[in-house]
Each structure stands twice: as structure tokens, then as C-alpha cells.
Amino acid sequence: MNLKQLSQMLGLSQTTVSRALNGYPEVNRETRERVLKAVRETGYRPNKAAQRLATGKAGSIGLVMPMAAGHPSDLHFSEFLTGLGEEALKHDFHFVLTPADPNDEVGALKRLAASGNVDALFITYMRGHDPRLEMLKSLSIPFLVHGRSFGTEPDYPYLDIDNEAAFYDATKLLLQLGHKRFALLNGPIYLDFAIRRKKGVVTALAERGLTLDEAYVSHTAMTDEQGLFAMERILQLNERPTAILCSSTVLALGAVRAINQANLKLGEDISLIAHDDVLTLLKPENFTVPLTTTRSSLRAAGVRVAERLIGEIKQLETFPEQELWKAELIVRASTGVAPAE
User: Fold this and answer.
1) Coil, strand or helix at 284
2) 277-302, pLDDT tens digit by residue?
3) pLDDT band, residue 27 (cuts 50/70/90)
4) For strand 292-295 and strand 328-330, is the pairing parallel, antiparallel, or unpaired?
């Protein structure tokens, strides 16, 4: 079925049907719902080329994907993309993923914006003083940042979780349980979330007159293998920590393996809190000793990013420019009272 046949079936003009499908506010709700119902029943799919000519919109969101030999893939990002895709599918939007050299993301974003193949851009893996922001602000198309850029004026649209508060709260819980020797298994040192999570730990410790010894900190890719290596190294230090904070349940998977191999009991000899991105295949409650976590869904963040970008492109509604979500602290068996000295 084409647009002409659909409009004839509904007794509406092709323009009205097209506007209803593209979310124009002048089409009333009753008409829009009637058109969408007919689309579902008939299986009608708009011709993208014709739609683009009629609306001036590509119906696509753009993303630059850094790729290089040895550049690790990330389980966390696939979870975020799943949420983004769920929402894009509802609006018949596409992704345009452009692979790029990790050292040329700014250039790749410029080329993608200039191509005319996307209506909006979003970026993630934010760094401190991120060089992509100034370029994005100079463009004439909408963009949205997943995360923030530490040390940069927050004058750009973003969606982030309060990473500093999450790890401050987690550290406070461990302090209340009597822990004094802390370790942090964190993400790469240059990434914004890692900077803020470390800051949360340091601030909470400082309130008790304690410091975070750099020998007990690791900054790595967030894989279970890196979690294992980091935890093994830290457990061999002169004074074993009694409290561990992990920036991901994936890191925690390796850390717990190292703790078990050292014949230590999680929740008794050593306590651990991990950040839970609500990964489909790695649930903290399914660990042998269920993990205490700070929790915020990456999939939900992907849905919200798509909702905001598509809403802005189609002018469906007004969204907040900046959103900062609070992570939820969920206490399980991996945290307990500090062992007696």
C-alpha cells in the first residue's frame, strides 16, 4: 500500500496523512490516532525518500563509533543502543553509525552533520574537557550528550546520572559499617563518569579524615578480565582493603573471582559495592553472594535520549535541556560490618 491508497482508504488528503505520520502538531489527536491505527492494520511503510523530500527530514539519528585495532568493544554501550533502538522503532527512525578513528571523532562528527543524512547527533563516552562539545555547539542541527564533561561549562544539552553522588553514598554506607581501608576499581581515567565517581569516594572519605591511596585505585577498561587483574594486584598489597567499589558489575565479576580465589568471604572478610547499569545478562542478585549496587538503567537512558532527540526533531513537545538522574542504592549481601582488626 502506498500513501495515495492509504489516504483514499481513510478519506483524508495525502498531506494530512503525511503530517499525521510525521507528528505535526496541527493534526488533531483523533486524526493522528486514526491514521496510526490504519498503518498498523495495513502494514503501510512510508517511502523514506519521498518523506524526506516532503518534510526535509532524514528520519535518522547520527552516532560516530570509534573503532581501531585493539579498541575494546563495550557491553555497556550495546545495552544503551538497545534502549535507543526501542524508542526509535516506535517513530520509524533510523540510526546512522559512522565508524571513525578514535583520534578523529571531531572530524567524523563534522562530516556526518554535513552529509545531510541525519537530523540530530548524540555523543557518549564523555571525557573531561571534551573537545567535541565546542564543535557540536557550532552546528545547526540538534545534539544531545549522554554524560557530561568534567571541567567544562555545562551549557549544552545532556542526560547523565549523578555519578559523584552515587559513589559518595556507596562510600558512606561502607564507612557506616566501620570500613577504613578502601579500594576503587574504576573505568578509564580520562572518562567523565570515572572522574566523578572517584571524586565521590574521595569526598566521603575526607569527611572522616581518611584518604584514598592511589595504590588501591585502578583505571581500566570495564571488563571482567581487568577486574580480576586489578583485584589480584590490590589483594597482594601490604594492607588488604576491606571495602571495594567497582564502577561496573562487569568489573565486579572479575573482582569477585579474585576474592574467591584468595579464600576470602564476600560480605564478611571484604565488602563490595558495584555500579549496576541493569545489564540484561549480568544481574547483581544472581552472583553467588548478591551484590550491593548503585543502580541506573543504561537501557532507560537510551530510550530517553531517543525520546528527546526525536521529540525535538518532530517538535512533539518541550523537553528539559539538562537531566541528572539519581542512582538508587540497593543493599544486598556483599556488604557487611568491617572485620575486626
Assistant:
1) helix
2) 999 889 999 999 999 999 999 999 99
3) confident
4) antiparallel
Q: Where are the alpha helices (DSSP H) in the chain?
A: 3-10, 14-21, 29-42, 48-55, 75-90, 105-114, 132-137, 163-176, 192-206, 224-235, 249-261, 298-314
* Greater model confidence, 69 or 231: 231
Cα separation, 258 vs 157, in Å, equals 40
102 vs 85, 138, 310, 329, CA distance in Å? 24, 21, 27, 34
Q: Are 256 and 266 in contact (CB under 8 A)?
A: yes
What the block records as the C-alpha cell of 291 is: 551484590
Q: What is the pLDDT of residue 326?
A: 97
Residue type, 176: Q
C-alpha cell at 216: 588501591
Q: Please, what's the b/e burial string for 262-271 (b: 16 or more CB within 10 A of its CB; e: otherwise)? A: eebebbeebb
pLDDT, tens only, 135-188? 999 988 999 999 999 999 999 999 999 999 999 999 999 999 999 999 999 999
What's the average model confidence in pLDDT over 237-248? 97
Rounded to whole angstroms, how far apart are CA atoms 72 and 65? 12
- Residue 146 phi/psi, 5-degree rounding, is -95, 100
* Cell 505520520, located at residue: 21
Contact of 312 with 283, CB cutoff 8 Å: no
pLDDT of residue 93: 85
Measure the CA–CA gap between 338 and 340, rounded to whole angstroms.
6
Distances (CA, A) of 46 to 6, 18, 27, 32, 34: 10, 9, 18, 15, 16
Tell me the three cell numbers of residue 41: 492494520
Closest C-alpha to 26, from 36, 34, 15, 37: 15
For residue 3, give Cα distances in angstroms to 11, 21, 30, 50, 53. Answer: 12, 11, 19, 10, 14
> Residue 178 is placed in which grid cell?
566501620
Q: Which residues contact 166 (CB under 8 A, 6 or more apart)?
A: 197, 200, 275, 294, 296, 326, 327, 329
